[in-house]
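#struct-pred
JK: can someone run the complex with magnesium ion? inputs below
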Amino acid sequence: MMKITELPQIFIDALPVLKQLEISGYEAYFVGGSVRDLMLHRHIHDIDIATSAYPEEVKETFDKTIDTGIKHGTVTVLYNGQSYEITTFRTESEYQDFRRPDHVTFVQSLEEDLKRRDFTINALAMNTKGEIIDLFNGLTDLDNKLVKAVGNPEKRFHEDALRMMRAVRFVSQLKFSLEQHTEAAILQHHKLLSKISIERVREEFVKLGLGPNSREAFQMFMDTKLSEEVPYMEGKQHLLEVYPKLQFSPSEETSLWSIIIILLKLQNDQISKFMRAWKNSNAMSDEVEKIVNFFDLLSETSPSDYQLFEVGKTTLLNTIDVAHILGQPIDSKVLVDRYMALPIKHNDELAIDGNFLIKLGITPGPHLGKILEDIKKQVIAGLLENDIDEIKSYIKKVM
Ligand SMILES: Nc1ccn([C@@H]2O[C@H](COP(=O)(O)OP(=O)(O)OP(=O)(O)O)[C@@H](O)[C@H]2O)c(=O)n1
Ligand SMILES: [Mg+2]
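RT: done, structure tokens with the ligand placed:
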């Protein structure tokens, strides 16, 4: 049996929680992604604990607990300023509506818990001695870099169809391959994905898109026809096939969405609809719309100083990133230099404001707004110095 002697701090911090359960007469193990990532020497962002104790028993064992998902057997324990999700050994009923189980069955053995998990690499457990429990050859699959369903892949995907997205997401994140029966089962059952809420699909899609192996994973996403079951991508493989051939993989979510929208050749009025269909936030949607529009502008012409000012630094850099990934030849250095050389970069850097104009005797209203806008344009174009006195004499001249 493999034994880990030097555990990362995050496990050491959690050990007293597992030991407390053991003292109370229950079994407790580290499970899931944290054990996988430990074996891969990847960063461990959180840990999951599985126990033979029922949720009520977990609550009796610790002082501070929160009923996170008590129906599903999960209790959060607050310990030493950290929070830990502790889930009772459970299985999933096989056929509900292909979504997360709405009821679960608690079971007595770790083995029964592990065998309903999605992939062998996620079905490892570790006890308090640091011993790895590997009932489904997860360690071999880790060595061979394989995402392989535990047992019958069709059953696993019927229990939770999101797992099909998770499979390609791990291919991207871990640079793994899909085991052939697992891949075949996804192709065969890809339609089940349409039953899953967009929020959950989006989360996996973003992880897929931002993973280091996202271009290969995206090819798999199309080959298995999962792409046919998500918003705006049905019947669009001929446009999306560019993605695996991109120069680079995106590393920002804004870039990922912008690139998909550009490849799909969506018109301007469809961008926010696309973003809404994917249940993205308004802030994300607004930024992506700005990026795509500026990208279109850059592909046609060189932006004016005023257009550079309007788009702002963040969107400029985001658009340059998108152009870079798409292999679009733009002179990013010139654009950034020009932006940095702008006399003002924000409205509030203008030497005057509306109140100043009112004091000069201009009546508030649309007319005043136009004058202010004109002054701003003159300043940005370098035709007028951003200086109160200069601006004052300019106003006197034009009025
Ligand atoms: N649809 C799912 C989701 C999760 N799991 C199991 O629950 C564990 C924890 O799930 P989660 O935190 O969602 O995923 P991780 O595998 O831990 O990946 P991440 O690093 O992204 O958290 C997984 O490892 C897996 O054993 C599963 O079997 N089926
Ligand atoms: Mg996890």
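RT: quick notes.
The mean pLDDT is 95.
The pocket of magnesium ion (ligand 2) is lined by residues 32-33, 46, 48 (CB under 6 Å).
JK: thanks, will look after standup
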